Amino acid sequence: MRRFTSLYIRLDATTATGEKVAAMRDYFAEAPAADAAWAVHFLAGRRLKRLIPTARLREWCAAETDMPLWLVEETYSAVGDLAETVSLLLDAVDTDEAGLDRPLHHWVAEDILPLRQADEATQRTAVTGFWRSLPLEGRFVLNKLLTGAFRVGVSRRLMTRALAEYSGIEPAVLAHRLMGRWQPDAESFRRLVDPDDHGEDAARPYPFFLASPVEQAPGETVADLGPVSDWLVEWKWDGIRAQLIRRRGECHLWSRGEELMAGRFPEIEAAAADLPDGLVLDGEILAWPVDADKPLPFVQLQRRINRLKPSARLQAEAPVRFMTYDLLEQAGADIREQPIEDRRARLEEVLADADPAIGLSASVHESGWAPLETRRAGSRDLGTEGFMLKRLGSPYRVGRTRGDWWKWKVDPYTIDAVLLYAQPGHGRRSNLLTDYTFGLRDGDELVPFAKAYSGLTDAEILELDRWLRRHTLERFGPVRSVQAEQVFELAFEGIQPSARHKSGIAVRFPRIARWRRDLSVADADTLQQVKELLPRER
Question: In this protein, which residues make up the domain named ATP-dependent DNA ligase family profile (predicted)?
């Protein structure tokens, strides 16, 4: 734990990419393979599922420090990070450093993971014992692991780069080896960094290639990408990005979040059984009846997402299709480096006689960008979010590599709403009011409508924070109700009815588009105006 704690502190102390890479490279060169495997697990963004409710950690901290629980809660509200709060408050408790000498993999496998099956009394005894066996920095890292909030400003791509510098293996190869069912153990790490190891898991997906958004500044147009003839244009579907794998007589379906979705979409798995062996398809899972000309709203797909074994009734009410974008592997050969037009031609041949539950995403052909712009404006009527633009001649890359794939989404919905409530954010924003609740006019009332956390500049956040503190009406724990005077333009991607919300509607991906200083509350939109958007989504 001593070595891993030092790595965390070193990473947390810098924003320089080169220094972060060097810190991780040095760690991998020194750490035992079993420890390095768990470090890869955490640095890649994978987390231990929360083992203990955070409320218990706060209660135990209060008991260990002889502080009233309300004071611990208030301190947590001010600090904004539970791991840091507990670590700092426990600094007054007598501790030693014996726990630092235990290897990281012993901490995880022997101490932390068994807590999942333990009763509350056993958990409390164990955790308070952990706290007393570590100094401040070690407690902080341990609490990060316990709360599942291990973030240290390192992307998966950056971690892979450090592994590449340590091992001499190409980052793309390492990225592929880390996909799927990679396990954090000593043998897996040795194989990960072994240049001569070519063993393959038949279920292993490829790293996903992600598109960058087309962000048009004033005066710019999408035509700045060059002639439309240089691009493959496809519809951008709103579903679950996934890879469908057919290898060694078996089918595997992986989400972009590297979750194996076995049994969740049996229609797709059954259809894939007729595909040729040695095939990997990249595409989107959509709620889409086979005889319909467009998908159902995303809310119907949501009904299927967490059902491990969907009933026949649910399958009938929300049937699914796999809409294929790309072909990554054919006859067991990786073809990602081939030009996209060649992969597309092969894909059309593969899917020519496929089951309707596995479809081919249609390409869109127009003479120029202007007619494409016109078609994009009607995207929602077709159940899409706009277009995907893929440069002809491009390979299938890893991650969000800019330049070859772009998502040209339809303009979001926008409405003007009134700021009603605010509370502190987390991390570096824990001392600022940055989490906002907005309302819409409904007669003489303002009805809470949506929460948004992003969209303002740092300068606007500071200015608004000062205003909110001066115009607070009431406080409910960390939440403040404020004078209803500030109007903001909110943007969101979708809207649907919701019985769980007081407004009767829910929106997808709300964010602040701009601060409407030119508008008064009387100028804000009404709930009825927003509800008029609902039929288009249905």
Answer: 313-442
Options 20, 49, 144, 236, the catalytic residue: 236
| Residue 502 known to be catalytic | no
d(CA 425, CA 435): 6
Amino acid at site 289: P
Model confidence pLDDT, tens digit, residues 196-229? 866 677 888 999 999 998 876 544 567 678 899 9
Indicate whether 519 and 485 sit together in one domain.
yes
Q: Which residues of the chain have pLDDT under 50?
A: 218-219, 537-538
Q: What is the number of other CB atoms lying within 10 angstroms of the CB of residue 170? A: 12
**Would you say 454 and 110 are in contact if contact means Cβ atoms under 8 Å apart?**
no
Question: What is the rounded distance in angstroms from the CA atom of residue 527 to the CA atom of residue 201?
Answer: 52
Give the global pTM. Answer: 0.74
Is residue 436 domain-shared with residue 371, that is, in the same domain?
A: no
Number of domains in the chain: 3
Task: List helix spans (H) across 322-381.
Answer: 340-350, 369-377
Query: Domain range holding 130?
Result: 2-147
CA angle 163, 167, 170 (to 5 degrees): 75
pLDDT in tens, 374-393: 998 888 888 898 999 999 99
Give the integer Cα–Cα distance in Å for 168 and 384. Answer: 43
Those residues whose C-beta lies under 8 Å from the C-beta of residue 462, and which sit 6 or more positions away, are 432
